[in-house]
Amino acid sequence: MAEEKIFADEPIAARGDLGERRASSAVDRVLRRPQGYQRVTPRGGAAEDGDGAKRHSLWRSLILVVFLMGIGAGIYYGIDPLRELLERPLTRVAVEGEFVFVSKTRTSELISAEINDDFLQLDLMRLKQVLEQDPWVERASIGRRWPDTLVVRIVEQKPIARWGDVGFMNQRGEIVTVAEAASQLAHLPLLQGEVSDASLILRQYQDLVRLLRTRGLDVIALKSDAKKSWRMTLAGEVELVIGRDQVMEKIGRFIRVYDRHLKDRWIEVKRVDLRYTNGVAVEWQEEVQTH
Predict the structure, then answer these.
(1) Which listed residue, of 31, 86, 145, 224, carries a Cα 20 to 30 Å from 95's Cα?
(2) More confident residue, 193 or 147
(3) Which domains does the chain have, with CATH numbers?
């Protein structure tokens, strides 16, 4: 029998060695990549980072330049109209308020003395101070109304009573000194006493008014002397002598006597003295005493 020889293409071990050599060669190529090498991603992000940042910076610079050029052009072409607007002369003064005690004519004169043609440079604070130096002015508010009007609003004092012969008392109990106020304030009640007691006198007056008004009696004067002794004058020039203490209790006793004995003869009463413990002393008009 003829001898048969079987030849293999390549030993199995040889094929295995070849695969290992190929893998090793690929690994070596990877390990030997040059420094600075970047992997290219599908979107190309890493490769394009540098160029994108440069383009972004360029656009920002361009926008800034255009913006600055626009501002410069606006200033250049708008400076004259703006200057004309800001330098517009003052042409009108509007004076507002209720002028009962304050003279509107006098107020206009004071304003005219302080203003000039420069609308923006007008010293509003100084003008406010000048107007508020008038004792009849409680406060003054001043503002500009574009394009060329100055608005002045005057708020007058609100006198609620005369204070002695020097002036009046306002609603906050403040004493305001004014000259020659008798004719303007003659219709107001008269309060008199120590300046340090002004707020106390005002409160006492208000309490007495509320109580006596229930009987139709009007208080026209309330006085407190240095000893804190009270005297009150009612409409018809009837005087009530109250004394130093227990003012409201004494007035309550007077009202009971008034209701029982004096109401129908009130026109005959000249003076009532309340400085007694259990009653009052009545002084009648002289015409009544002679009958």
Answers:
(1) 86
(2) 193
(3) 92-156 (3.10.20.310), 159-289 (3.40.50.11690)
